[in-house]
Design a protein that fits this description.
globular, five-stranded parallel sheet, 15 strands, 19 helices, about 400 residues
Length: about 400
């Protein structure tokens, strides 16, 4: 059996070589501690998830557990699917601990750590929940934009808030707050998506004052304030003028981040390079994707792609191409992925040609078995768990510094 040491994996991350470090434990166990760029696939899901999440069959894959005895069978499963470069992590997770390397808690940890780094470097402005409630009560000139998935927003939301998921913010904010004197408040469930959403609008040069709702719906609940349930407020249709303005704003941000733009001929050449993994993501919302998308692209709404990068692209060091018929959403999403150390491109054309219809064939939401209960999901989370989650997020910047493998930068 081929083996790689923790030092080998860490070196690959530092040199940006392609590698997928896969945790075979349950999501709950994974959330208790894992290496920074690890992704989680339990043995029962390998057949369904591996061909989608690991599109190149000869990509280097390293499997580990924490002494549960899951590795040998998982290696056979991967080999049966045609994966040829499958190794185990020497000594498993305990060897990572013994080497003194960092373990990160929760899920989507490195995206959340990156969000905290952005706030630390850019001093992203925010308002506490009681201050936002006071603005609502006095009917101040504000617009609250919820950067989460629509389903999360519909479950529970800030009063008066409108659903504008992640990458849609650069398009939707000027439509919903056309007066530059209107203060825009961006919220999510906790911190990451509101920080990234707020900083996206600031980076894009909107004339409005833009702030994050500090600690999102968790902070709102901990302040003893009431959330709304079942709301359906959404962004209205986008006209050509608004789309063009958003595209120009986002394009400038993408250039600053070093994002490259390619045509379909260049995409074909990237796809023909069998030595590299290539992820193709359509960053629009699921309904737009289903109505017509480019062949070979999978749906990964931009805000969630930045929030859950380990889920969508577990091969660290791979290439990523983003597509979007308006352009702005892809440019803004790409600007963040570039800062997270990805080689990322935006496709300039293609939507004028033949399109496929139907939902993405990505794997469905998993059952409850072994699932980690997020402290920001649902409406029945203990306050102690929510506060502990916030305390964990606050410590991520220091943990990134100790780890030393991330390669993030902030424009």
């Amino acid at each position: 059996m081929s083996r790689l040491s923790p030092h080998d994996v860490r070196t690959a991350w530092l040199l940006r070589y392609e590698i997928a470090l896969i945790d075979l434990r349950s999501e709950h166990a994974f959330a208790q501690g894992h290496p920074l760029f690890a992704a989680q696939i339990p043995p029962s899901r390998i057949a369904e998830e591996a061909p989608i999440r690991l599109p190149r069959r000869d990509v280097p894959i390293v499997l580990y557990d924490d002494g549960e005895g899951l590795v040998d069978d998982a290696i056979e499963q991967f080999r049966a699917l045609g994966f040829t470069e499958v190794s185990s992590l020497t000594g498993g997770l305990q060897a990572w601990r013994d080497a003194g390397y960092e373990l990160f808690q929760d899920v989507n940890s490195y995206s959340k750590a990156f969000g905290e780094l952005v706030e630390s470097r850019r001093h992203t402005p925010s308002l506490a929940a009681p201050d936002v409630q006071a603005l609502i009560d006095e009917k101040a000139d504000i617009r609250i934009l919820d950067a989460r998935r629509f389903e999360e927003y519909a479950t529970m939301s800030i009063p008066t808030g409108t659903s504008v998921p992640g990458a849609e913010l650069v398009v939707g904010a000027p439509i919903l707050a056309p007066d530059p004197d209107t203060t825009i408040i961006v919220n999510c469930a906790g911190r990451t998506r509101s920080i990234i959403g707020t900083q996206s609008l600031i980076n894009a040069g909107l004339p409005n004052r833009v702030v994050a709702l500090r600690n999102g719906t968790i902070g709102w609940t901990l302040a003893g304030q009431q959330l709304e349930n079942g709301q359906q407020r959404r962004l209205p249709p986008v006209d050509q003028g608004a789309a063009a303005e958003a595209r120009e704003r986002a394009r400038q941000v993408a250039y600053r981040a070093g994002v490259r733009h390619i045509d379909t001929a260049a995409l074909k050449r990237l796809g023909a390079d069998g030595r590299r993994t290539l992820y193709r993501f359509d960053v629009r919302q699921p309904d737009a994707f289903a109505a017509g998308h480019l062949p070979g692209f999978r749906n990964a709404p931009g805000g969630q792609l930045v929030q859950e990068t380990d889920h969508f692209a577990p091969v660290r060091g791979a290439r990523i191409v983003l597509a979007d018929d308006l352009g702005a959403r892809a440019d803004m999403s790409a600007s963040w992925l570039a800062q997270m150390g990805w080689e990322v491109y935006v496709l300039e054309s293609g939507f004028e040609g033949p399109l496929e219809t139907g939902a993405s064939d990505a794997f469905p939401p998993r059952g409850p078995e072994g699932r980690y209960k997020r402290p920001y999901e649902g409406t029945d989370n203990p306050q102690a768990a929510m506060q502990a989650y916030l305390d964990w997020e606050f410590g991520l910047v220091d943990q990134l510094e100790r780890d030393g493998t991330h390669g993030f930068y902030v424009i």
